Amino acid sequence: MTQLEYARRGVITEKMKYAAAAEGVPPEFIRDGIAAGTIVLCHNIKHTNGTPLAVGAGLRTKVNANIGSSSDDTDIAKELEKARIAVKYGADAIMDLSTGGPVDEIRKAIIAETGACIGSVPLYQAALDAVRNKNKAIVDMTVDDIFAGIIKHAEDGVDFITVHCGVTRGTVERMKNEGRLMDVVSRGGAFTIEWMSYNNKENPLFEHFDKLLEITKEYDMTLSLGDGFRPGCLADATDRAQIHELILLGELTQRAQAAGVQVMIEGPGHVPLNQIQTNIQLQKRLCHGAPFYVLGPLVTDIAPGYDHITCAIGGAIAAAAGADFLCYVTPSEHLCLPNVQDVRDGVIATRIAAHAADIAKGVVGAMEKDIAMAKCRKKLDWEGQFALAMDPDKAREYRANSPVADHGACTMCGEFCAYKLMDDAMKR
Question: What pTM was computed for the model?
Fold first, then answer.
């Protein structure tokens, strides 16, 4: 049985116990959330070196890091270093989005490299296999080709897969009729639309959704229902195509859960600040409280090189409003494939957003960390501060690079440190 089926029978599994201990909540809380569909427990039965990751209502907001090769950069060693850095600096999950080079070897190496939760987009695999192995164009993929890619990822131990099941011919027509500035920016969505247009057929993942459920149930993979019509700029946010796709995803969520398959929903994208809360409320209502996994959202389009910051601003608001899983954005977004430093910066920025939201949501243990930091700062306990810091290495680096006198304070205030002055004053 799947974790969802166990939960609905009232059974607490070892995976649920593990997740409960990691979250600091009772196992019953995890079980009941899974049964209700408001929590997913991501762990493919084939992922023998992986650990279960619980995502959803009442839990710590999780952070995902996207890595993976492109046709212009196929270095496996570089992707493995990104995976190590992402985990070191606190990513809960890694998505391998490789589209160039030996993608099978890259995916398997990333899975073997870390015990983190692993996600992927099998449609990329299917497209590459069709082009490389069968001398086909992407539009010549068969339904069997698409499902073969899904099975390959399932067998390798991928814990959750993004599938663009809500990209339908009807949704495309709604996008055309309303008009969009940037059309479709999702790679998987664009692949699917190109295939439908050329073949004059419906999206195979929508038309054959029951077959998809059979495969994912066998491996207890979590379905991450992808947002093929996510807005790629602020001007396209919360439009007819995006919301129509979300309605379809809500319907598919119910079908999947009825079949014993866990589901989370993916969301935008580029969204103005004043629309973020509305987007979260719509998803939660239309998808019956299923965990929401958002990319950003980015709150402005004009900060290339700093999009990890635009992402963190939107991510904090989204998570505080109820989003459960934040996908990071790196400084290189919209510019180039991220390097190792970009991955580190993206993870830290999104962790800051997630933690700030957890404080607002009252997540167990979140505020306690900040209280502990305040106590260390008051005592000028630098080692304690480093231990609590999200990026201890950077904190130590700044401290080491600024000469410190015997007073023990930092060089911002030196001997006039407010902590020291107040300590003396309060002792009088």
Answer: 0.95
